[in-house]
Design goal:
The protein is of the alpha/beta class and 385 residues long. It has two domains: 10-56 and 292-384, Rossmann fold, CATH 3.40.50.10350; 62-279, Alpha-Beta Complex (Glycerate kinase, domain 2). Helices cover 36% and strands 19% of the residues. β1, α1 (29-43) and β2 form a beta-alpha-beta unit. It is elongated, with a radius of gyration of 22 Å.
Length: 385
């Protein structure tokens, strides 16, 4: 069922807000939103105001989505990836403000690495710390971070080293690899923290602790290559020792905090070594861009993601947009690559426009831009007749 009730023709909507999440593996949130807006504008008649708003709840695409939405300026800084290879790393500065936005996976992300050609024991978050130092050096007093999509499982150890923390073993020898943390005895903080005075907020909707059955290693390690049982046990011992010595030397213990296990324990590291605070990714995004006001000022809301299914309706970004639109009594068109029936029949969705209505799934995945553009034009024509 594509429509719940008769709406005015699509030409009747003059203020359209396009709030789009990523189409994982095919289109960024920004690109999907722009294609929809351009296709819609080409089919509409009369005056029309379309606003594009790429959306992210803190995972993949967060930096670009929030950076663009807040009128950010893209910056680049030299850093290293998770394997220690030199890269130029992107972050965003909100125009005319000392506010930096950074998606940490631009440094430590799985997508940056050659598939299957590394072991997670080789990866760390040193590059993340390099970028944070650069942001602070550029005067960013406020930093907003998204931490999804990591290739690392080091508990933020590499990041802490880049920020000036020193880790040593029982005989006072320095530790440079997170896989040697089982021998950790002492942590020496930097004399002058490069992040002193900075307010760091982490957008994170993951609630896993650092350790245990629901922790970083056992839940997220396998997707990063931590599959051998001995490797898993060793990684758990390393992170346990890290948490024990942080508690001993720094008198803080965030191992059980919600989100500590995010991004291979980077959440724990940010709380422990950078005094970061955590907040819901979507709530942060919505507050920063004043989403409620933008929806209230619109005649129609267009939202969606690559695959719309039951999880879409259960608190993910798109589901939250549906809730907001319902509170403001605004009709919603949900545009997606494919949709399950429970989404199409949800009373908050006035029209459900899956690309697969007109194009086979394989084609829509291999030629996502052309298929999305064609689907919008077809649906627009059908809905306006």
């Amino acid at each position: 069922m594509l429509s719940q009730f008769e709406d005015p023709h699509m030409h009747g909507y003059k203020r359209v807000l396009v709030v789009m999440d990523k189409w994982k593996g095919t289109l960024t949130a920004g690109r999907a939103a722009q294609i929809i807006a351009d296709s819609w504008a080409s089919m509409a008649s009369g005056s029309l105001e379309i606003r594009c708003l790429p959306m992210s709840d803190g995972g993949e695409g967060f930096g670009e989505a929030l950076g663009l939405a807040m009128g950010g300026i893209q910056r680049q800084t030299p850093a290293v990836d998770a394997l220690g290879r030199p890269i130029s790393c992107e972050w965003w500065q909100v125009e005319n403000q000392f506010h930096g936005i950074f998606e940490t996976s631009r440094s430590n992300g799985l997508a940056q690495l050659p598939r299957g050609q590394f072991h997670p024991g080789q990866c760390d978050t040193f590059g993340v710390g390099q970028v944070l130092r650069a942001m602070a050096g550029a005067g960013m007093h406020t930093m907003t971070l998204g931490i999804g999509g990591s290739a690392t499982n080091d508990g933020g150890f590499g990041m802490a080293r880049a920020l000036g923390y020193h880790f040593s073993d029982d005989v006072g020898q320095p530790i440079f690899r997170w896989t040697d943390l089982v021998s950790l005895r002492h942590i020496q903080p930097p004399e002058h923290s490069p992040l002193a005075g900075a307010c760091i907020t982490v957008a994170c909707d993951v609630t896993n602790p650092l350790l245990g059955e629901m922790g970083a290693t056992r839940i997220y390690g396998p997707q990063k290559g931590l599959t051998d049982s001995e490797d898993v046990q060793h990684a758990e011992r390393c992170l346990t020792r890290l948490a024990d010595v942080v508690a001993q030397d720094m008198h803080r213990d965030f191992r059980n905090a919600a989100g500590a296990g995010a991004a291979g324990g980077l959440g724990y590291g940010l709380a422990s070594f950078a005094d970061a605070l955590f907040t819901s990714g979507f709530d942060l995004f919505a507050e920063r861009v004043d989403l409620s006001r933008l929806i209230a000022q619109s005649d129609l809301v267009v939202t969606g993601e690559g695959r719309a299914d039951a999880s879409t309706l259960m608190g993910k970004g798109v589901g939250q947009v549906l809730e907001m639109a319902q509170r403001h009594h605004k009709p919603v068109v949900l545009v997606c690559g494919e949709a399950t029936q429970d989404v199409a029949s949800d009373p908050r969705v006035h029209h459900c426009w899956p690309v697969t209505r007109f194009f086979p799934l394989e084609q829509s995945l291999s030629h996502p831009e052309d298929c999305l553009n064609g689907a919008i034009r077809n649906f627009f024509s059908l809905s306006s007749n």
